[in-house]
Amino acid sequence: MIDIKKLTKQADDKRILRGIDLSIKKGETVGILGPNGAGKSTLLKVIATLIKPSGGQVTIGGYDLKKDQAEIKKLFGYLPHSSLLYDHYSPLENLVFFGNLYGVKNARARAIELVKEVGLSFFLNEPVKNFSRGMVQRIAIARAIVHEPELLLLDEPHTGLDQGAITILNTVILRMKEKGVTTLMVTHDFQQAAEICDRIIIVKNGKIADDFVLVDKKVSTLNKKYLYQVEGVS
Questions:
Q1: Neighbouring residues of 220: CB distance < 8 A, sequence distance ≥ 6
Q2: pLDDT > 70 in the chain, percent
Q3: How far apart are CA 70 and CA 126, in angstroms?
Q4: In a 3-state reduction of DSSP, which class is residue 72?
Q5: How many domains does the chain contain in total?
Q6: Which domain holds residue 127?
Q7: How far from chain centre, in Å, is Cα 174?
Q8: In 76, 78, 149, 179, which residue has its Cα 20 to 30 A from 70's Cα atom?
Q9: What is the pLDDT of residues 113-160, one digit of tens each?
Q10: Is 213 exposed, middle or buried (0-12, 13-18, 19+ CB in 10 A)?
Q11: Across-strand partners of 203?
Q12: H-type helices in 76-106, by residue range?
């Protein structure tokens, strides 16, 4: 699904990504961990076609990132720190708008279905500006998957969420996985990473420090590997 070779990114005099080699198969759910400034979000933004790499090659779904950005954008749903929602629109209006942008057939029915899936049917026609952080994030999740993407890109999706919103988000991710969707999630939340990811990538100083399958789904295992790679604690 994703093939990255010798990816670099430099901003002014700072090297953010330093030769990333990474291959991700269709249907994998991958957590990207690392300290602040390691290059995690930059890596995700390159894949999301939001910033141009300085060097290297990126192929997504068989498309070259440099030549086929329009085709690549059709493949993924992206959930950044901001919701990308229109505050004065209701969940229904937002999702119909984004559904139409992606050419979703019967966007209204799809929007209603998704609002129900994230547990906010009662607020279907209320302006998003009146929503709590957790409620906004639920609709943002729905926005990211309105077109049933093959690839889901999530940047710190659990930040600021209550337990109910966390449960709904994880359920959506796992349901997407059952459909064969590939998920990349940048996170600092080890508990959620252990719960929903089957593979972990640790990024340090712009390079991949570790890449492993989390077989036992234990937070303790994840913590141990992270501390070893990032802080040198064995």
A1: none
A2: 99
A3: 33
A4: helix
A5: 1
A6: 2-231
A7: 13
A8: 179
A9: 999 999 999 999 999 999 988 899 899 999 999 999 999 999 998 887
A10: exposed
A11: 208
A12: 91-101
- Residue 63 sits at φ, ψ, to 5 deg, of -100, 140
Give CA angle at 113 (107, 114), nearest 5°: 90
Q: Using the Cα atoms of residue 31, residue 43, residue 73 and residue 138 in order, give the sign of their dihedral.
A: positive
Task: With CA atoms as reference, report the closest residue to 91 among 74, 73, 75, 107.
Answer: 107
> What amino acid occupies position 41?
S
The 8-class DSSP code of residue 180 comes to T
- Helical pair 107-117 and 91-101, crossing angle rounded to 10 deg: 130
How many residues in total does the chain contain? 234
pTM of the model: 0.92
Q: Which two tokens stand for residue 128?
A: 């998003």
**Residue 111 burial by CB count (10 A; 0-12/13-18/19+): exposed, middle or buried?**
buried
Q: What is the DSSP letter of 51?
A: S
The vertex-101 CA angle with 95 and 104, nearest 5°, equals 70
